[in-house]
Amino acid sequence: MRCLKPMTIMTLAAAGVFAAVLTIAVTDPVVVEAAPAAGPDQAAAQQAPATPAKGYVGADTCATCHTGYDTAINASKHGQAKNPRTPAAAQGCESCHGPGEAHVNDPEKVKPVQFNKLSAKAVTDTCATCHNRGPHALWKGSQHEARNVSCVTCHSVHQPKSARAQLKATNQQQQCMSCHRDKVAKLDRSGHMPVREGKMECTSCHNPHGSTNVRLLKAGNSINESCASCHTEKRGPFLFEHAGISGDSCATCHDPHGSNNDRMLVAKLPFLCQRCHNHTRHPSTIYDGKVLQSSNRLYSRACVTCHSAIHGSNHPAGSTFLRQ
Ligand code: HEC
Ligand code: HEC
Ligand code: HEC
Ligand code: HEC
Ligand code: HEC
Ligand code: HEC
Ligand code: HEC
Ligand code: HEC
Ligand code: HEC
Ligand code: HEC
User: How far apart, in whole angstroms, are the C-alpha atoms of residue 252 and residue 103?
Assistant: First the structure.
């Protein structure tokens, strides 16, 4: 079956010779969808490509001229015909490139869909016929969509370079770097989360395909909620909230991408605190009579030596964040 040219199949079918065989081939995909827990026999049957519909020629035909494209696709998730949602289980190459019969008959004059000649929206519409659920449901209206970034800006179907997710660059950081160099550069600063160590990635926090949160953040509905999805102990509510946090955001004090201060703080201690607390009553408290600039409050971990529950306190006497 597989080696027959489509034209031959049609001729034979018209003659009624192979009618029975053809019926099986055509209904195959339906059987596959109805039986997700397929045994080995059925699994073998799933590998058989469906007979091309009118105007379509099938991947085997495309590969006679475009050698190697089928092998590359088959090595990727798009080629896993066992999954009924893949191009391989649908029209093969033509799921994306459109019906190819006219092109095969006159390759020079008629071209199938050429992705490098399409608008960003047309590319995305093609991919979104299948990728429109789960993490992809919010692409429309996302910051990337709005700026004409398309699926093939970041992904390559035929020549991916990354180990995961078919990116055009060798890894996420390289991929994002082409446009967001400043953010990637910050990962090299002394205070940072373990992104450059490979324990986290840009997509630990962001969904480049769209999100309900600000800044394409994956979790929660605010910057605080996004951070607290991992740092749960900072979530609160606390008996005593630090108004600088509850009213605003973690990013007021931390740069999520990294900084040259300890703990990714946006400014060195105590200056960070003094951005807001420049009128602190400290100088008139019992501790010392000196002005702050020459006091012990500058040394060690500065303000947080004493105010260690800086993110909020549940202690009955924790109103000034001296106790957890
Ligand atoms: C008979 C040989 C032949 C077959 C079969 C064939 N093609 Fe082509 N295809 C060509 C040739 C030759 C070109 C290049 C024409 C040119 O450069 O002007 C081409 C060009 C293309 C292009 C554009 C390449 C570019 O650089 O943008 C795509 C995409 C393509 N083919 C996809 C397919 C698909 C999908 C199929 C199966 C439906 C297919 N081709 C079947 C010969 C073939
Ligand atoms: C999932 C969608 C999809 C499938 C399936 C697919 N292509 Fe493509 N094709 C693309 C995209 C997108 C590009 C643009 C370059 C890229 O992303 O690698 C492309 C580019 C091409 C090109 C232009 C040259 C190049 O490499 O850029 C040819 C030729 C081609 N495809 C042939 C094929 C053949 C033959 C098959 C089947 C074996 C096939 N394609 C299956 C999406 C697809
Ligand atoms: C006919 C349906 C279909 C079309 C059209 C399609 N895909 Fe897919 N794609 C799939 C399926 C199914 C998978 C397997 C993973 C899954 O279930 O999401 C997949 C997987 C992927 C993956 C993940 C690969 C990995 O290794 O994790 C990427 C990236 C991808 N597709 C990009 C694209 C792009 C870009 C386009 C448009 C040029 C496209 N797809 C068009 C069905 C499709
Ligand atoms: C700004 C770059 C970028 C753009 C644009 C982009 N992606 Fe992705 N995509 C990624 C990255 C990075 C990952 C890896 C995510 C991960 O590893 O968690 C990914 C993962 C995927 C995956 C596999 C995992 C999953 O989330 O299902 C699919 C499928 C996919 N993208 C499809 C698409 C489609 C379709 C489009 C266009 C609507 C698109 N992507 C646009 C960067 C991008
Ligand atoms: C720990 C979580 C986290 C990681 C990891 C992360 N980001 Fe972010 N990113 C954020 C938060 C939170 C914001 C919002 C900051 C703000 O608005 O002050 C943000 C904002 C951004 C912005 C918009 C910033 C602006 O100034 O408009 C870009 C672009 C960005 N991140 C890219 C990246 C890239 C690229 C990576 C990977 C190198 C990455 N991010 C890794 C949390 C993260
Ligand atoms: C082709 C260029 C390009 C690539 C590659 C790219 N982005 Fe973007 N990104 C943009 C543009 C353009 C914007 C919109 C900026 C704006 O509106 O100021 C944006 C915005 C963002 C934002 C901020 C959204 C906001 O609310 O301001 C985040 C976060 C982001 N991108 C993350 C990523 C991540 C993560 C990657 C890598 C997976 C990535 N981007 C790759 C072009 C790109
Ligand atoms: C996906 C999970 C995740 C998210 C989301 C996340 N973090 Fe982290 N964060 C980590 C991990 C893992 C570490 C390293 C912990 C360790 O080494 O013990 C870390 C470490 C830190 C550190 C200590 C860094 C140092 O130099 O010791 C700070 C500060 C921090 N995160 C703040 C934030 C902020 C602010 C946000 C929101 C913008 C955030 N995190 C979002 C996982 C996350
Ligand atoms: C008012 C400024 C400020 C805000 C706002 C803030 N932090 Fe911090 N954070 C600090 C300081 C200062 C340290 C260093 C504490 C130390 O060294 O003892 C720190 C340390 C951390 C650490 C590492 C040490 C630890 O306690 O685990 C994490 C993680 C962290 N912050 C997460 C967050 C998260 C998540 C948010 C938002 C909910 C947030 N921070 C908001 C000032 C702030
Ligand atoms: C973004 C501004 C901002 C930053 C930065 C900030 N705070 Fe606050 N802090 C506030 C606000 C607003 C309040 C509540 C109003 C008040 O009483 O002053 C508060 C309350 C406090 C209180 C309790 C005050 C009281 O009267 O009960 C202490 C203690 C405190 N902050 C210490 C710190 C320390 C230490 C730092 C540096 C690690 C810091 N704050 C950084 C805004 C900030
Ligand atoms: C040696 C320990 C210590 C250090 C260091 C310290 N504080 Fe305090 N702070 C306290 C104590 C104790 C109180 C409570 C005083 C009271 O109840 O009257 C307090 C109260 C406060 C208050 C609330 C009362 C007021 O004066 O408004 C603020 C705000 C504050 N500190 C900010 C800071 C900042 C900012 C720094 C760093 C520049 C800092 N503290 C360093 C011990 C310290």
Answer: 57
Q: How far is it, in rounded angstroms, from Cα 133 to Cα 120?
A: 19
Position 310 scores a pLDDT of 93
Judgement on whether residues 138 and 96 belong to the same structural domain of the protein: no
| 247: in domain | yes
Residues whose CB is less than 8 angstroms from the CB of residue 235 and which lie 6 or more positions away in sequence, other chains included: 224, 228
Q: Any bridge partners for residue 206, and if so which?
A: 217
- 244 in a structural domain: yes
- pLDDT (0 to 100) of residue 161: 95
Considering only CA atoms, give the Rg of the chain: 30
Ligand 10 — pocket residues by CB below 6 A?
270, 273-274, 277, 280-282, 285, 287, 292, 296-297, 302-303, 305-307, 320, 322
Ligand 8 near 85 CB (within 6 A): no
In this structure, what token pair is assigned to residue 1?
């079956």
Ligand nearest to the CA of 243: 9
Could you tell me which residue, 11 or 223, shows the higher pLDDT? 223
Q: How far is the CA of 230 from the centre of ligand 10 (A)?
A: 29
Overall average pLDDT of the 25-44 stretch: 36
> Quick check: 228 and 238 in contact, CB under 8 A?
no
Q: Is the pTM of this model over 0.85?
A: yes
Pocket of ligand 9 from Cβ distances under 6 Å: 242-244, 248, 252-253, 272-273, 275-277, 303-304, 307, 310, 319-321
Say how far apart CA 225 and CA 48 lie, in whole Å: 48
What percent of the chain stands above pLDDT 70? 75
**Does residue 314 lie in a domain region?**
no
